[in-house]
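Lab notebook page, bench 4
Experiment: in silico fold of construct C2
Operator: M.H.
Input chain length: 51 residues
Purpose: comparison with the prior construct
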Amino acid sequence: MSQEPPAEDPLSTDELTELLAEAEGTTPEAIERGAAEIEIAPPSEANVVDE
């Protein structure tokens, strides 16, 4: 299977933030604050849960 080049150029971080803010009905600043509040541990520190 061959890989084709992307149809569009990738979005910048600022462009993505603006699109997310518009879709959520909020401001880019609110998106940035929310993103800063999320703490994601690296996989080496993640807890393994068997459900």
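Observations: The helical segments are 13-24, 28-37. DSSP finds two helices and no strands in the chain.
Next step: discuss at group meeting.
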